[in-house]
Amino acid sequence: MITPRAARPEDAAELVRLRRLMFSAMTGRDEPGGWERDAEEMARRQLTGPEPVLGAFVVDGDAAGAAPHLAACAVGRIEERLPAPGHPAGRFAFVFNVCTDPRYRGRGLARTTTEALLAWFAERGVTRVDLHATDDAEPLYRSLGFAEHSTALSLDLRTRARP
């Protein structure tokens, strides 16, 4: 049986390594850069303290002869909005990083870490969880109960003309 654990601040570099692998798998391009340093610092900070604001569950790697590393992770964050009739606590969550190192794929690690993250959200009163799925990952998320919710509109403020 695979037992995920809550990520710790010292896992920040490995969480970012897996995040980079996720983006590379999604786009077909490996794009290292300063974002990694900033992401590591932010992850470390958000995983610190008795009530971290970042939810992250991991499975440790077991590759023989390899330096300590993570095999998989599921990472998300709780957002507090004003309560509404269907969401009296006003707690929503977004899963923004699920990745399994290629050496460990096909073992159910994405499912295991995502289920742990969803349980963590539920314990904190979250009533809705959103995510974006790749075509390959969509069957996993649907099997966990995810379904279309609504058409989201987004605006990239970097592209908006300034007056």
How does this structure look, described?
It is a single chain. The chain has a single domain (5-159), classed as Gcn5-related N-acetyltransferase (GNAT) (Aminopeptidase, 3-Layer(aba) Sandwich), CATH 3.40.630. 31% of the residues lie in helices and 21% in strands. The protein has 4 helices and 5 strands, in the order E-H-H-E-E-E-H-E-H. It has helices spanning 12-27, 34-46, 109-123, 138-143, and strands at residues 5-6, 54-60, 70-80, 91-100, 128-131. The protein has a 5-stranded mixed beta sheet with strand order 1-2-3-4-5. Helix 1 (12-27) crosses helix 2. The longest helix is centred in the first third of the chain and has 16 residues, at 12-27. The mean pLDDT is 93.
